[in-house]
């Protein structure tokens, strides 16, 4: 399981458990099946109306994607590109094709195959950029699905609250304060469930999917740069250093946080003070 997702799930469960245990007289009052059903069924119904069936049925698969620890083998892709580039520099196309058979990244494999086929660099880059744009659009739509559900669930929570308030108004004539209080609490439960699902499930999943897309696009752009350098027959060592820059996480591109100053600058300041 993805470590950050696991931490988030455990922390949210602990938070709700502690809050209900110490602040609620009876934690069981927060378990109301009809209220939860209004929010879940209403949200799913509105989602089915909004999206085609083939997209809605992917919800559970996308949740599994968020839960599992998906690795991007960036370093492995760099080594594959550099190794293939070294062979390509020798002009042995047969050896390049044999090395390409062991490559697992389909995006990288497509780019190298086009280079072997002597496709113009501009056409290769256009095709690969189109594939990047297609992946970004597809996965953005998947994340947007959960953002739409995050908008629907609080709305259906309010609908459940309105239903509860209507029932509450019929009890006002009886004057039973205890019964009125109980129905008022139940009326607010649907809003509680709607807000909880929106902010603890649907929105976090959407953000996680968006971040996943950013990481995947970054790897694809790295491969794109490597393919371009391969077309230009750049040095494999230069390719390695260039592609490694995609993996390095600089805190600051200009200042590394060190307090040291250049000697010339220190001497200039001393002269200025004198």
From TrEMBL:
InterPro entries, sorted: Flag_MotA_CS, MotA-like, MotA_ExbB_proton_chnl
Pfam families in UniProt: MotA_ExbB (PF01618)
Keyword annotations of the record: Cell membrane, Flagellar rotation, Membrane, Transmembrane, Transmembrane helix, Transport
GO biological process: bacterial-type flagellum-dependent swarming motility; chemotaxis
Membrane topology: Multi-pass membrane protein
Record flagged with keyword Transferase: no
Transmembrane segments: 33-53, 155-172, 184-202
Subcellular location: Cell membrane
Residue ranges of the region described as Disordered: 255-274
GO-annotated cellular components: plasma membrane
Occurrences of domain MotA/TolQ/ExbB proton channel (ranges): 101-221
Family: Belongs to the MotA family.
Name of this chain's protein: Chemotaxis protein MotA
């Amino acid at each position: 399981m993805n470590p950050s997702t696991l931490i988030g799930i455990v922390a949210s469960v602990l938070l709700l458990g502690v809050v209900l245990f110490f602040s609620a007289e009876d934690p069981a009052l927060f378990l109301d099946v009809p209220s939860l059903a209004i929010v879940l069924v209403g949200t799913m119904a509105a989602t089915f109306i909004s999206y085609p069936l083939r997209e809605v049925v992917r919800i559970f698969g996308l949740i599994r994607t968020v839960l599992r620890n998906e690795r991007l083998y960036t370093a492995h892709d760099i080594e594959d590109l550099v190794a293939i580039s070294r062979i390509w520099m020798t002009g042995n196309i047969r050896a390049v094709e044999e090395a390409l058979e062991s490559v697992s990244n389909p995006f990288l494999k497509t780019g190298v195959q086009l280079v072997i086929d002597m496709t113009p660099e501009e056409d290769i880059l256009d095709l690969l950029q189109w594939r990047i744009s297609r992946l970004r659009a597809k996965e953005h739509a998947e994340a947007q699905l959960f953002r739409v559900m995050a908008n629907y669930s609080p709305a259906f929570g309010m609908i459940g609250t309105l239903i509860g308030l209507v029932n509450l108004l019929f009890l006002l004539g009886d004057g039973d304060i205890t019964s009125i209080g109980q129905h008022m609490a139940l009326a607010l439960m649907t809003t509680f469930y709607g807000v909880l699902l929106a902010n603890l499930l649907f929105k976090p999943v959407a953000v996680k999917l968006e971040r996943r897309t950013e990481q995947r696009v970054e790897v694809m752009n790295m491969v794109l740069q490597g393919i371009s350098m391969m077309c230009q027959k750049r040095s494999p060592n230069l390719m390695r250093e260039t592609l490694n820059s995609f993996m390095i996480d600089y805190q600051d591109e200009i200042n590394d946080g060190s307090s040291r100053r250049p000697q010339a600058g220190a001497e200039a300041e001393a002269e200025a003070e004198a």
